[in-house]
Known about the structure:
The structure holds two protein chains of two kinds.
Chain A: H1 13-18, H2 27-37, H3 42-53, H4 59-82, E1 96-108, H5 109-115, E2 120-121, E3 131-143
Antiparallel strand pairs in A: 1-3, 2-3
Helix pairs in contact in A: 2-3, 2-4, 3-4
Chain B: H1 3-26, H2 32-56, E1 82-92, E2 98-107
Antiparallel strand pairs in B: 1-2
Helix pairs in contact in B: 1-2
Amino acid sequence: MAAARPVGPGFFPLDEELGLLPGSLSPQFQDHLTRLAAWMPFERAAEMLAVLTGVQVSEATTRRQTYTAEAAYEAVQAAQVAAPEEPAPPVRADKLVLSADGAMVPRVAWAVGRSQNAGHRRGASGSGSGRSAVYAPVLLLAPE
Amino acid sequence: MTDETESTWRTLSEEVLSGLKEWRQAHPRATLREIEEAVMERMSRLSARMIQDLALGSATTEWSSQPLDERPRCPHCGTALQARGKRSRHLQSTGGHDLQLQRSYGSCPTCGAGLFPPG
């Protein structure tokens, strides 16, 4: 049996050219809405968009458009993962420079015990402030 | 950009300027926040109109009268599209103002992509 002919609402070449997305917002405000909805509940994101830009959308629209953007982003990521990776050009170096460095990471006192495997403590944990610090040695390698 | 568009922009710009002058005279003790809101409200109306007109200033807005070899192509089989009329789309833009985009649409005469379902 032959496949059915594809049907749809027609082609809108201008929409393609302008990069329009489905929905009732211009691309800039769809972007704003999606970013807000990534940080807060959909209803709050819709409220914030209205306060900041004057653009009004419902909670349902916010949810739908955020999920659509999420799916599109996942598709982009999947395509990037599936794409054959180009081999990195070989690094040619006569010398290799080694450098030791460290980072001070402030931690609250109760968490220090768990973090001691990652580095060694520098200084005593101040019982007054309840804070201490972890000194994490880092080895940096760079071809010269 | 057509002369008509340019004339519309000029008129709208003058309305914004005169409107703001009048508003300031009516609100001599306005706070900076109120001034910002008054300016942004009027400017966003002008911005939305400019965005709409610039978007519609493309040859792709109305392609039905173009020769076949210059028309947009079917994304599936590459045949020149057959025009099926015009449709409007409304989008919210700056300040919540409406953009109205009336543009040609079409379908593919070879593979049928983009045709409305029968019935």
